[in-house]
Amino acid sequence: MGFITRLITVFGLVLLAHAGYSAHEHTVLYSNVHLSSSSTALPQDIVIEALVSLIIVSTGLVFGAEKLKPVSWSEWAKEVEREGDTRNPYARLEERYSFWDVKAKRKEFADWMRSGADAPLKG
């Protein structure tokens, strides 16, 4: 996230905190005054400030987010294979003892098929 997007996000959070504080003060003020005829709804400026601050925070977070991953599982898997084990979330599982190595089994099966399928497969 860049400096500008962080600044936008922090500014939006400050505005949101101010809107929340203003809403709290408004409800405390009108809870002490017992006027049955008046409405205790929030003023429009507090509601607008809260909505604008949410839009500003959302904008800062969206523009500061990392590049999205591909939607297709196969494209993501190709990228992981190209980059090695640095991004592979399953690298830890594949390293454990007695984990079935799919790539080795595929290679073994392909070699067995090329040899004419005469020899039995290993283990």
From TrEMBL:
The text of the family note is:
Belongs to the membrane magnesium transporter (TC 1.A.67) family.
How is this protein positioned relative to the membrane?
Multi-pass membrane protein
Primary localization class, coarse? membrane
**Keyword hit for Repeat:** no
Regions that span the bilayer? 46-65
| Protein name (Swiss-Prot/TrEMBL) | Magnesium transporter
> Which Pfam family is one of this chain's hits?
MMgT
One GO cellular component assignment for this chain's record is: EMC complex
Q: Which PANTHER family match?
A: ER MEMBRANE PROTEIN COMPLEX SUBUNIT 5 (PTHR28144)
Q: Which residues form the signal peptide?
A: 1-19
Organism field: Aspergillus mulundensis
Entry keyword set: Membrane, Signal, Transmembrane, Transmembrane helix
- Where located? Endomembrane system
